[in-house]
UniProtKB/TrEMBL annotation:
This protein's name: Glutathione transferase
Role this protein plays: Conjugation of reduced glutathione to a wide number of exogenous and endogenous hydrophobic electrophiles.
One GO biological process term: glutathione metabolic process
Domain GST C-terminal: 92-215
InterPro entries (UniProt xref): Glutathione-S-Trfase_C-like (IPR010987), Glutathione-S-Trfase_C_sf (IPR036282), Glutathione_S-Trfase (IPR040079), Glutathione_S-Trfase_N (IPR004045), GST_C (IPR004046), GST_superfamily (IPR050213), Thioredoxin-like_sf (IPR036249)
Species in which this protein is naturally found: Mesocestoides corti
Domain GST N-terminal as annotated: residue spans: 7-89
GO MF entries: glutathione transferase activity
Length: 215
């Protein structure tokens, strides 16, 4: 893949797509400029016609020499960009720690998808239902806290930033937006997030600008 810094990039994604967050964090980390193109569900039938892949999230990359490239599938995008920018870990063990964190985040995605699928049936007890969802993720947070304790560095998987940091930050900040004190029982997660915000100013600036969906 050619240098993205010189390309014109458009990032297409659904407005509430959880898979778009880590990609945006990676682009912020590398200070790669792009046009953000969120799509509402009502707009999708028309937008689908202009997106060659007919799938989102998708990156449309127009290079200075006229070449046009499309990238789709969020996990493939992150791994491809992670490879290009050295964000997958520098050795087997760092890659191992990286994939462990990502695996846990994907596990939480399944729980949240069940929440959204069944939410319409809980109008009368929505507060209790939300609390149960947060409580259901507790075991995942406990596992991540232990993983960060074992990680060979101050970041999620190493002493350098990897794509695991972007997956984890997106997940953690979503939970914090819905329950601000949710990290109190997890000192290693709290310490990791504080360190990341202090050492990656581009990511920290992007995080401040974000808005979150409340469950």
């Amino acid at each position: 893949m050619a240098n993205l810094e010189q390309a014109q990039i458009t990032f297409y994604h659904m407005t509430r797509c959880p898979d778009s967050g880590p990609i945006k964090l990676l682009l912020a980390h590398k200070d790669i400029k792009y046009t953000d193109a969120p799509i509402k569900h009502s707009e999708w039938p028309l937008k689908r016609e202009e997106i060659i892949t007919s799938r989102v999230p998708a990156l449309r990359i127009q290079y200075p020499d006229g070449r046009l490239q499309w990238m789709t599938e969020s996990k493939a995008i992150l791994r491809c960009l992670g490879m290009q920018y050295g964000l997958l870990g520098r050795n087997d063990m760092e890659m191992y720690h990286c994939d462990r964190i990502i695996g846990k985040i994907i596990e939480s995605d399944r729980l949240l998808k069940v929440f959204y699928k069944n939410r319409k049936f809980h109008d009368n007890d929505i507060k209790e239902y939300k609390e149960n969802v947060i409580s259901g993720i507790t075991h995942i947070l406990e596992s991540i806290d232990r993983m960060l304790k074992d990680a060979p560095g101050e970041y999620a998987a190493a002493d350098i930033i990897t794509i695991a940091d972007f997956y984890l930050l997106d997940f953690i900040d979503f939970l914090r937006a819905n329950k601000p004190d949710c990290l109190k029982p997890y000192p290693y997660i709290e310490r990791w997030r504080k360190h990341l915000m202090q050492t990656d100013q581009l990511v920290a600036k992007f995080v401040v600008s974000r808005s979150w969906e409340i469950l």
